[in-house]
Amino acid sequence: MISQYIQSFLEKNKYSDFELKAVFFDMDGVLYNSMPNHAIAWVKTMQELNLPFTEYDVYMNEGRTGESTINAFFPKVYNRNATKEEIQSIYNTKSLYFNQLPEAEPIEHVYDFLKLIKNKGLEIFLVTGSGQVSLLEKLNKSFPGIFQKEKMVTAFDVKYGKPNPEPYLIALSKGNLKPWQAIVVENAPLGVRSAVDAGIFTIAVNTGILRDEELIKEGANVVLPTMKSLIKNWDL
Ligand code: CA
User: Fold this and answer.
1) Which domain holds residue 165?
2) 204 Cα: distance to centroid of ligand 1 (angstroms)
3) How far apart are the CA of 5 and the centre of ligand 1, in A?
4) What pLDDT sits at residue 67?
5) Predicted local distance difference test score (pLDDT) of residue 133
6) pLDDT value at residue 8
7) What's the total number of domains in the chain?
8) SS3 state at 154
9) What are the 10-residue block averages of pLDDT along the chain, 236 residues in total?
10) C or N terminus of the chain, fewer CB within 10 Å?
11) Are residues 77 and 112 in the same domain?
């Protein structure tokens, strides 16, 4: 099923060939079911400031920096941007609430998909805006034998981050790959935008609460509801 969408992708991007060598994975909402915790923490923090920020807004803004997220909503109530100190304080509160929640579990069946990709001899890259220091350790615990330090793009590698194509362009460069040699698996509108603007075939797995339309709008080549359906439809 996925292969059916490759031809129109090639035509649209004026590529002559598709030669899959690597799959790029986003982390939050793709590897880990961490978005419900982010949503709880953000909504609670913003409610205390009387800021109109819904669970849907959290999912729509997934991947944006804390500062940019806060300033997309703060002026609606306070008629000005938040100061640096206010942003820090709001972000600290959000982190505090987030850290009180139980650690997110891996997304159902994602390890099966990772193993399938690895068994096909394809390279696996992680491309995330996360800046956790012990990330590789955590990944190795959840998904043994899959991830490698030199095949990761994290907050420490980027200047702009998603929705800028930068993180995916860095992944291409780290892997010495062309855009027609990779596929991205994303879950969020800004992540899809980043991958599509990097010129890469993008599969959105809609693991959250958004309408599929939000992911199609940003250019996703395929939208699927679950990892199980991705495994079922993987014919590359
Ligand atoms: Ca994500």
Assistant:
1) 2-33+105-233
2) 10
3) 22
4) 86
5) 80
6) 94
7) 2
8) coil
9) 95 96 97 96 95 94 87 93 94 94 97 98 95 89 97 92 95 98 98 98 98 98 98 96
10) N
11) no
Question: Residue 229 corresponds to which amino acid?
Answer: S
**What is the pLDDT at residue 68?**
86
Whether residue 10 sits in one domain with residue 39:
no
CB 167 within 8 A of CB 6: no
- Strands laid side by side in the 182-186 sheet: 152-153, 123-127, 22-25, 182-186, 201-205, 222-224
Give the CATH number for residue 164.
3.40.50.1000
- Please give the model's pTM, rounded to 2 decimal places: 0.94
Q: Report which residue type is found at 130.
A: S
CA of 147 to the centre of ligand 1 (A): 17
Through-space distance between the first and last CA atoms of the chain, rounded to whole angstroms = 9
Q: What is the distance in A from the centroid of ligand 1 to the CA of 127?
A: 9
Ligand 1: centre distance to CA 218 (Å):
14
Instruction: State the distance from the centre of ligand 1 to the C-alpha of 29, rounded, in angstroms.
Output: 5
